[in-house]
Amino acid sequence: MKTFCVIPAFNEEKNITTVISQVKSMVDAVVVVDDDSSDRTADLAARAGVILLKHLINRGQGAALRTGTRYCLDNGADIIIHFDADGQFLARDIERVIAPIKGGTAQVVFGSRFLNSEHSAAMPIFKKYFIMPLAKAVNKLFFKVNLTDPQSGFRAMSREAARLINWKQDRMAHCSEIMFEVKKNNFKVKEIPIRVIYHNFGQSFSGGLKILKELFIAMLVN
Question: Are 95 and 27 in contact (CB under 8 A)?
């Protein structure tokens, strides 16, 4: 089975080379989608020998994932992984995340930070006790989705699932919309515990409010 990994990237010159080097040996192809970075992200990705796709304007992580996923489908991928460029996910978890799809027990697998007690404890307090519970409540009430991690960007899907999952949210609300699409299509789903290395970036109060704002926009659209 051909496994492709899509990495959306925006101004990640500090992390992209390391992330690519760690992921490359775990998959058949790495697809980096540069979302109009203003730094050297695209140049470094190209030097690392990956498939590089570029947006001419900044469209958001959800849009970058959609671009990368379509490329994978057009080029024969059997399993498609979504993986962040900021170095918070661990490449060695890829094998465990795709195992249920390879084994035929799941069509979509979500990595969950909350099934790993050690790394759940390490989550920034504001995110753990405010952002995540509220995001989970929104998912459950408005999207009828009840998974342990409402905003994980580490997921894998079979070719069949990727063809039918049609998310429209260009930014962070795509996480909830993908979960909704998975439930709507009645795919076999599993959650797998993952480990996360938290950085300061993206853990701020304003960053958390932005995620919630986009979630409520997605709620209104759907």
Answer: no
User: How much is the average pLDDT of 77-85?
Assistant: 98
Range list of H helices, the chain: 16-24, 41-47, 61-74, 94-102, 117-121, 125-126, 132-142, 159-164, 174-184, 205-221
| Cα-Cα-Cα-Cα dihedral sign, residues 109, 115, 121, 127 | positive
Q: Which is it for strands 108-112 and 155-158: parallel, antiparallel or unpaired?
A: antiparallel
Contact 183/143 with Cβ under 8 angstroms? yes
Tell the burial category of 183 from Cβ atoms under 10 Å away from its Cβ (0-12, 13-18, 19+): middle
Output the six-digit token pair for 91. Answer: 């490449």
For 118-163, the pLDDT digits (tens) are 554 455 565 666 566 666 666 556 556 567 887 789 999 999 999 9
> Which range is least confidently modeled, 24-33, 87-96, 101-110, 173-182?
173-182
Q: Which helix (H) or strand (E) holds 157?
A: strand 155-158
The encoded tokens of residue 194 equal 């993952």
- CA 150/CA 176 separation, integer angstroms: 7
For residues 194 and 113, is the Cβ–Cβ distance under 8 A?
yes
**Predicted structure pTM score:** 0.84
39 phi/psi in degrees, rounded to 5: -110, -155
pLDDT of 202 reads 47
CA–CA separation, 106 vs 70, rounded Å? Answer: 21
Which of 34, 78, 81, 41 has the alpha carbon at shortest distance from 60?
Answer: 34
